[in-house]
Specification:
Blueprint (H helix, E strand, L loop, with lengths): L6 E2 L6 E2 L1 H18 L24 H8 L4 H5 L11 H16 L6 H15 L3 H17 L1 H8 L17 H17 L6 H8 L4 H14 L8 H24 L5 H9 L2 H18 L5
Helix pairs in contact: 4-5, 4-6, 4-13, 5-8, 6-8, 6-11, 8-10, 9-10, 11-12, 11-13
Length: 290
């Protein structure tokens, strides 16, 4: 090993080793740091505020992206639009008319189902979009099993108002509860838990609700997409049903039994609100249809 070369001290002319010179330099640096501390770092600049455009009608770019063949996954699900709130009674009437027509449910179930659907919509925070999505799922299920659903639904009994019944009586209650749950799960990031949905839908246990949900999904071949064209078609069908019932109620002589029955089925105020909500939904979905 080569010997270290001593260095001469520039002050006193004393010869010192390089190691001693390095130690002296470190001491001098430490002393300077104590007397002259480094400036404290400046606080970070506040973040630039970001303004978000409210979710309303899609822009031309968004419409092109949703309808483009390269973004089929984005076009498969339509986000719920920010529509004016609809009264639960009107939503219950809308769901009742759709289920009576789709599932050929007994007319004796109409009043009970309407009250059940209105209660479920109120406690779950559902909108007209969720009802339309649930009807889309029910229509998709009916296309695969038309005769089986009709035979199972037409079986009125004393337990038909209970969606937790162990038999197939009142199957429309159970199907609608599951369809509306799937609509919430598809449209929202924070979907309701099984326990909370059991409380609002009156299904007995989360295990039973999970079994119902899995059977429903299997019946739809696990297709929970909401293509804008299919959704818009079901919205037009719902509006046609509401308009027909409202027209029959208007045509019936005032004070007659037919007028009373029509008003009990669909009140004029509920019909007007349903048609307004469906028109808003259709206006939202129309630009998304390729």
């Amino acid at each position: 090993m080569a010997a270290t070369t001593p260095a001469a001290c520039p002050v006193a002319g004393v010869v010192v080793s390089p190691r001693a010179a390095a130690i002296a330099a470190l001491k001098a640096a430490a002393t300077a740091k104590r007397h002259h501390p480094a400036p404290s770092p400046s606080p970070p600049a506040p973040p630039t505020p970001v303004s978000f455009r409210p979710l309303q009608q899609p822009t031309a770019v968004e419409t092109h992206q949703l309808t483009s063949s390269t973004t089929t996954a984005a076009a498969a699900v339509a986000a719920p639009p920010p529509l004016p709130p609809t009264r639960p009674d009107a939503l219950g009437a809308l769901a009742m008319l759709a289920v009576l027509r789709l599932l050929s449910a007994p007319a004796a179930h109409a009043a009970t189902f309407r009250a059940y659907a209105a209660r479920l919509a109120a406690r779950s925070g559902s909108s007209a979009f969720h009802i339309a999505a649930a009807v889309t799922y029910l229509a998709r299920l009916k296309r695969r099993f038309p005769h089986a659903l009709k035979a199972a639904v037409i079986s009125p009994s004393a337990s038909s108002h209970d969606p937790g019944a162990a038999t197939t009586d009142g199957l429309e209650f159970r199907l609608f509860a599951v369809a509306l749950l799937l609509a919430h799960k598809t449209a929202e990031d924070a979907s309701p838990t099984a326990r909370s949905w059991c409380r609002v839908s009156r299904v007995r246990t989360p295990r039973e609700l999970l079994a119902m949900e899995l059977e429903f999904l299997g019946g739809m071949d696990y297709d929970v997409s909401l293509p804008p064209a299919e959704l818009a078609g079901n919205i037009r069908a719902l509006a046609s049903i509401v308009s027909t019932v409202a027209a029959h109620a208007t045509a019936a002589p005032a004070g007659s039994a037919a007028a009373a029955a029509a008003a009990a089925l669909l009140a004029p105020a509920d019909a007007k609100e349903c048609l307004r909500a469906l028109a808003d939904l259709h206006e939202y979905c129309s630009p998304l249809v390729a």
